[in-house]
Amino acid sequence: MSVKLPKALRLHQHNTAALEDWFLSKEYQDTEINAIKDPTDSTDKYQITSIPSPFARIDLVKTAFLQLHSMIEGDNTEGSTGDIKLSKLDGNTVYHKLVSDCLDVGELFFNQDKYDKIKIVTWKRDPRNRENTEEDFVKQLIESTEIGHKILGKSLNLYLNQDEESYNFNKLNQISIVLYDHKVIGATSPASVFFSAADANGNIEKIKIGEDILFDDIYNPLYNRNPEYQKYFYYIFEAYPNLQKDMPEFYVYLQDNINKLQEVNHSLYSDIKEYQGKNTEDKLEAYDKEFEKTGYNLLESIHIRKRKIKQDPINDFSDFVISSSKNKQGIRPLVLQNKFKEVGFNYVIGHWQEKYEVPYVDYRSLSTRTLPVQEDKYPYITVSDFLSSTIFRVPYKVNSHDFYFGELQNDNIRESYMLPLKTEFFDYFSIEELRDNKMMKINEVRKGEVEVTLEIPIKRNAKIQFKRTYYFGQKPNIEDNIGEI
To answer: What are phi and psi of 432, to 5 degrees?
Structure first.
């Protein structure tokens, strides 16, 4: 007759030895917590929701960074998230989603000057419990004459006091809330730098930074983002080394990220390592110099920054800068061609991609334009800036010795065409350059259809081709790059 052994009922699978009668138990520690198997599987598409409060959200994001590190470490403890065996920083779990969205909020905070719809509101608190209620919104609630306000203030105070060491609430003097088009999408976090609102991806229109659509279902790790944005995190964690202890989960993610950079972007890896080798004073100076002040704090005395708008680096870095005899000083615009196919050309951040779309017309003035895809405020020239919507045909051959009418590609036609150039073209090039460099070609494809090609020199002795097709009897539509004869 077999004897059925007693079983201790517990959430985790750690230490499964048979236990009889009364036995000594203990509080759950990290080992036991990590051994609790998630019944929904962390690859579930729905995010974890327990208590619908900012405090729960702060904890979820903090935990997500730790979970990713455990996957990288290859933790194969039965029941742990290490069973998933994902490829390092990439993956499709809820933890990757939480981390990606957290970094997306950071991107908006970092690039806040790019977007007119971004607003940042500060929620203030005095962790030292001084008398000034203007700097402590919790105290204002508690001292309110409204019963509901008092209850909310006391509840917030309870959370902030009981978890002050676990989440750095004892050093928290403000939370900066990021709104996009008047909707909350995230905030600064005392435990993970930033955290997102649970409904961030369904609450706003699509926001793009470079090629990345923020808050979507394609999770973007840090190593795959803007190099300047990556540097920002290393700079702040090195300039304020206490952050490495206050936010260990985020800091270990940065360590995993730099290991990845050594494989995929050695130049950025070297820049970060060089910065890490500086002394603390030099690190603070570099942090202040590299990034723009915002007036917001992450924790007491730890100032967070935003991207500094630098037009010179675009001028220096991009291969699309116009090569002009008349525009040698000051800001030189980029010359952009829709779906430019050449490879290896530097754009603003990284190389130009053929899939990048450039509008054929931009009605904004040059000084107020933002660059396609990257959204940096910087002047650029497109087709309609130099080519007019109409080309005039004359029913006779012109005297090419005394007049210049472009490089006609057809010898057998009896008509000629006036150059469809706007006066803005001559702000950058002379008539002699136009003629001697044969910058404009006119090709009569068929009767009633003419294709015009204007070649604009840029860096690297390369040329951008502006093309427009003109049709007889058809009204111009410059948005679709169609002109009229």
So the answer is: -65, -40
Identify which of 305, 307, 295 has the alpha carbon closest to the alpha carbon of residue 124: 295
- Alpha-carbon distance 466 to 455, whole Å? 6
DSSP string covering 91-124: --SHHHHHHHHHHHHHHHHHTGGG-TTEEEEEEE
Whether the CB-CB separation of 384 and 478 falls below 8 Å is answered with: yes
- pTM reported for the whole predicted model: 0.72
Which residues, in sequence order, are CB contacts of 200 under 8 Å at separation 6+? 101, 104, 105, 185, 186, 215
The DSSP line for 347-391 is -SSSB--TT----S---S-GGG-B-TTT--B--EE-HHHHB-SB-
pLDDT tens track for 338-388: 989 998 898 987 788 888 899 999 999 999 998 998 778 899 999 999 999
User: Distance between CA 291 and CA 305 in Å, rounded?
Assistant: 6
Question: CA distances (Å), 411 to each of 123, 134, 401, 441, in order?
Answer: 73, 81, 16, 13
CA–CA–CA angle 202, 208, 212 (5° rounding): 95
Give exposure, 430-445, as e/b (b: 16+ Cβ within 10 Å): eeeebeeeebbbbbbe
Among residues 332, 345, 434, the alpha carbon closest in space to that of 378 is found at: 332
On whether the CB atoms of residues 449 and 469 are closer than 8 A, the answer is yes
Q: Which of 174, 186, 194, 192 is nearest to 299 (CA)?
A: 174
Q: Which two tokens stand for residue 328?
A: 């040698």
CB atoms within 10 A of CB 390: 13
Q: Are 179 and 118 in contact (CB under 8 A)?
A: yes
DSSP annotation string for 287-308: HHHHEEEEEEEEETTEEEEEE-
For the chain, the farthest-separated pair of C-alpha atoms sits apart, in whole angstroms, at: 116
- Other Cβ atoms within 10 Å of 270 Cβ, number: 12
Distance of CA 143 to the CA centre of its chain: 41
With 0-12 CB in 10 A as exposed, 13-18 as middle and 19+ as buried, what is 158? exposed
| Interatomic CA distance for residues 150 and 415, integer angstroms | 85
Query: Which is it for strands 407-408 and 393-394: parallel, antiparallel or unpaired?
Result: unpaired
What number of CA atoms fall less than 13 Å from residue 349's CA on the CB side? 19
d(CA 321, CA 393): 33
Query: Left (φ > 0), alpha (ψ -120 to 50) or beta: where does 331 sit?
Result: beta
**Length of the chain in terms of residues written:** 485
Give per-residue pLDDT as tens, 56-101: 899 999 999 998 988 866 544 333 444 444 457 998 889 999 999 9
